[in-house]
Amino acid sequence: MIFQIYVVDCSDHVRLEETSQELAELLQDDKLRGVPLLVYANKQDLATALPASDVATHLGLHLIRDRTWQIQACVATDGTGVKEGMEWVCKNIPVKK
Q1: Which residues of the chain have pLDDT under 70?
Q2: 44 annotated as belonging to a binding site for a ligand
């Protein structure tokens, strides 16, 4: 099963709009249609980082209706939140019949 994992630098407010557009383009790719999406809201340890809920709003995740998605706050340098995101991925692997 294919999963899409997208990492966002939550401290880079300037590039958030660009990141949103890039994700929207990826979500339109036929090869990724309906593929579950995990977004890591990275760099939560920085004072300038937006909370994951604000990142979800900026990315328009609430508008996604054709796939399951999850946003996970994380700090990649120390692993905070990474495991929780991977656990979500494992729980959302569809069972083939």
Answers
A1: 1, 94-97
A2: yes
- The answer to the question of whether 43 is labelled as a binding residue is yes
- Structural domains of the chain, with CATH: 4-92 (3.40.50.300)
Q: Is the pTM of this model over 0.85?
A: yes
Instruction: Compute the C-alpha angle 84/90/92, nearest 5°.
Output: 105
- The answer to whether 42 is a known ligand-binding residue is yes
pLDDT number for residue 97: 61
Question: What's the rounded Cα separation, in Å, for the pair 39 and 4?
Answer: 8
Instruction: Judge whether 4 is annotated as a binding position.
Output: no
According to the model, what pLDDT value does residue 33 have?
Answer: 87
Q: Which residues are paired to 38 by β-bridges?
A: 5, 70
Nearest one of 84, 73, 63 to 20, comparing CA atoms: 63
